[in-house]
Amino acid sequence: MRVSAKVDYALRAAAELASTGGEPTKRDAIAAAQGIPVPFLEQILLALKHAGIVRTRRGPEGGYWLARDAAEITLADVIRAVEGPLANVQGARPEDVAYTGAATPLRGVWIAVRANLRAVLDEVTLADLAAGRLPPRVVALTQDPAAWEPR
């Protein structure tokens, strides 16, 4: 899986908002705390706003905050807001692709890949990140030494 800068920044910005306890946070403060370029962050926050993940208010007391409780927002929600579906094949959903001959089983592979992405990204919430902990099933996946080996 390739994680784009946009996804990485969006998750970091959302985690930062989750750590504020619902207080409005200025865009520049989020950018500084997470090392995100402000122009890029503006695009991300707009996408998150359109997806109903963040709210915003202008003015000296304004800023950005999560639209729902951090425990109700998964990492998958944030990723979908900024990049669309978790898994696609040449822009199509895995269930919509068709192969012939020896490649026929690939459709099942892409479905399984999506299921495994969901198993992690739909389980971890922004509240988990803000609390500095991951769900036990996700932690268990990191305990396998092979998970840390680059390939």
Overview of this protein structure:
With 151 residues, the chain is mainly α. The chain has a single domain, classed as Winged helix-like DNA-binding domain superfamily/Winged helix DNA-binding domain (Arc Repressor Mutant, subunit A), CATH 1.10.10.10. It has 7 helices and 2 strands; from the N terminus they run H-H-H-E-E-H-H-H-H. It has helices at residues 5-18, 27-34, 38-50, 75-83, 106-121, 126-131, 136-142, and strands spanning 54-57, 63-66. The protein has a two-stranded antiparallel sheet. Strand 1 and strand 2 form a beta hairpin. The mean pLDDT is 95.
What's the short story on this structure?
The chain is mainly alpha-helical and 151 residues long.
Topology:
Blueprint: H1 5-18, H2 27-34, H3 38-50, E1 54-57, E2 63-66, H4 75-83, H5 106-121, H6 126-131, H7 136-142
Antiparallel strand pairs: 1-2
